[in-house]
Structure formats: C-alpha cells, structure tokens
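tool=predict chain=A
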Amino acid sequence: MSPIGVSARRGAPGDTDADTRIVGLFEGDSPDDPALKELVDSGEAKSGFKKLAVTHVDGKRVVVVGLGKRDELDGEKARGAAAAAAGRASELGAHSLSWAAPAPDFAGPIVEGTLLKLYKFDRFKSKKDDESDSDNGVTSLEVSSPDTDLDDAVAESRVRAEATNRTRELQNLPSNVATPEFLAARAREIADAHDTLEFESFGRDAIESMGMGAFASVAQGTYAEPQLIVLRYSGAGAKGPHLGLVGKAVTFDTGGISIKPAGKMHEMKFDMSGGAAVLEAMGAIAELGVPAQVTAVVPATENMPSGRSVKPGDIVTAMNGKTIEVNNTDAEGRLILADGLCYAVDQGAERLVDIATLTGAIVIALGSTYCGLFSNDDNWFGQVDAACSATGELGWRMPLHPEYFELTKGTYADLQNSSEQRKASSAYAAEFLRQFVDDRPWVHMDIAGTAWATGRTYAGNGATGFGTRTFIELAESLGR
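tool=predict ok
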C-alpha cells in the first residue's frame, strides 16, 4: 500500500505544479477559463453527476467532473465524484492531482474519495499491475481554495482515509497470513506508535481462565492460537462517556462442524472485517488526539472443524454466567462477541458498539447499501447513526422485539445461538447479543453486506474498510 502525499493550498486553481487539475462542474455553471468554457459549450463536458471530460490547458491535463445540482452536493456525492475523477486521471497516467474544492466543506470528502479509490492490493503479485509501464501511479494530491485555509480538514481526512485503507489491507490478506496472532501483532504495532494507546492480548489459556466459555468454544477446534486483543485509549482532556468498541475477528470461518458449502468459502477470510475496522480506527483516533476514552476489544480466532471442535448441542457458559446451547457452530460470531461485550462491560465501557459480518440475512434485507443497526437506546442509536451518515458508511435501523428475544431462549440452557424457526435471523442475532451488554446503551452493526464487494465507486469490489471512519467520527463526536 503506497502512501500518497496529501496537502492543501491557498490560491488560484491554475497556480499548481501538479500535472493534472480536477475541476468540478455544477449544473448551470459556465467556467471562466475559455478552454473549459469551450468544452462545456460543445457538450463534451457535462454537469451530470460523475460525468467526465478531459482537455489540456497551458500544458496541463484537466479532468472535468460533473457534480450535478449545487444544492444537492453532499459529502458522499463529493467522495463519489472525487473517486471517479481520480480513477480517470490514474488511467491517463497522472502522477500528481490538484482539486479545486467546490466549497470548503467538501475538501475532506475529496481527499477521502481520492485515496480510497486509488488504493489497490497487489502485494502478492510477482508482477505488479503497473510494472510494465514507467507510470508508477498517482503519488500526490493537492486540494486548493482561493481564500480558505483547508489544512486541518485535509489533514484529518487523510488520516481517516489512510486508516480505512489499512483496514482494507488487513481484510484482503489471506487467512494463512492474517491469523489471530498476526492481528495481535498489528495491534501491538499500532499501540507502540502512540503513547496514548495501551495494548494487551490474551491467548487460549487466559481466555478460558477468564470464564469466556462462548469464545473458547469457537476457538477449541482450531490449532491456531486465539487472541483476545485489547487496545485502551485515553486522549488528553477526554470528554464524554467511556466508549467500548467490540469487533468480530474470525480470521477464517469454515462454519465448524456445521460446515459451509464450498462455493465462495474463500471469502470467509473477510469474517474478521469488524475487528480490522476497530483496530485501525483506534490508530487513527490516537493519531488525531481525539479527547475521548475508548476501549477496543477484538476476539480473534479461526472457526475450524476438527476432532476437538464444539459440536451442535454442546452447552457453554459465557463470561457473565449465561449458558448457551450451541445449536449451529456456524453461528459463531455471536458467541465470540458475547464474551467480547462482557469484557468491555467489565472494563467500564459506558457506551457500546459492536461490529460484525454476522448474518447473511442482513444482505437479503439491505443489500450492500446499508449496514444493519440494532440498538437498545434511542439517543445512543442517534449518535451512531449520525456518525454513519457523516462518513457515508450508511446504516439502517432494524427492530428489536420481545418476540425475537423469545426465539433466543434455550431448551436446556438460558439461550440458544440458533433457532430452528429460522426467521428474523439478523434481529435474532442482535437480541442474542443484547443479553451481554448489561443494559448499557449499545448499538450492533451487522456489516455482512457492506464489508466487501459492494461495487461502490470508491471501494470497488474488494474490501471496503467499512466502519473505520464511522468509529473515528463517533469518538470525535463524544469529545466535542
């Protein structure tokens, strides 16, 4: 993952050393520059959203990108337009980009859309995609404004986008590389880079000794050492409630004894996407010096079939003493999150968010446009939802209900991790998790449809890093 230099400049758009300028065109606009005006008047450059045209002015390439109606442009559309323009510029061999910000509020989204679009994962290719050309891709991005200082907005958005791309890097790694111990090592690396972060990790014996029978049951089938990864952040002048972030990190999910079909099982390396988002968000929160207190908990394990695997019908006991019938070993995410949430509560977290690629049912319900949001507290939901909306990582509230809770009750134990009735599966899973939050304000994010292969302009068809920027925004909102 090659870094791209990002900067802000105050001055006229044309006064740049970049080899490629990017100019946004609103509906009804007529550019002052004669060459650009001619491009618009000829109909080659269009104001329709993400429509692209290319020309040259004073020896520099200019990419014109349609922004649609001025009053309809928002942060997410700005990200999409920036991604479209960056993709075209990259195809044309651009090395340096200069964006004329259409308004100061859009400088940050332009940075995010550009950096997210230009990310690529090719570390395992013996011949890189651009190796046959002299072009080594875009290496710098500048955002300019004639009369506004954009330094802070541009710098913060760079941190957010780079953190998201680091999440994507973890997601894209194969499971023989990104093991639980690999994730723990990455968490230690993040902590070592910031004095405000503390790192701990616990292996199999410690997990069992802490009474995390639900987590331990999933991990017992794998020979890879599981890890309970913990990062603690305390920013200077910390404000607001103690935030607990819990991320599912099943580094490969076969389904265990309730084994999955072979088709697309290779995608189950992405079952650690929630944990990856939590870890890299913590690094960005520390880098930005957010005045908040945050504890991140990432239970990490493989879910493998073996002679020692948990079996359907087994009963296990979670950290809070609740007993669980494991009726389906492929409903493992809720088991490791149960103990992760208990641990976050034990550490004093006053507000909780968990994030997980949890249910295929959420993909049926919401596709790849929204993640599912479930909450036991309207005010806390509102804060998390606002963070999702601000970053373009959209969430849609799904219901909790006593009837769904009834489905989670076990025949031989307090709870069952899967019901034979097979209805409201995503809500069922959320009600199950609700039993481990000690009635503290909590939001569950089901990202099974948004973690990878969404096709969104700036995310493409691989890992998206979904949730990373939401958590950064959420921590900042608590510290304001």
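The longest helix spans residues 151-172. The first strand starts at residue 5 and ends at 10.
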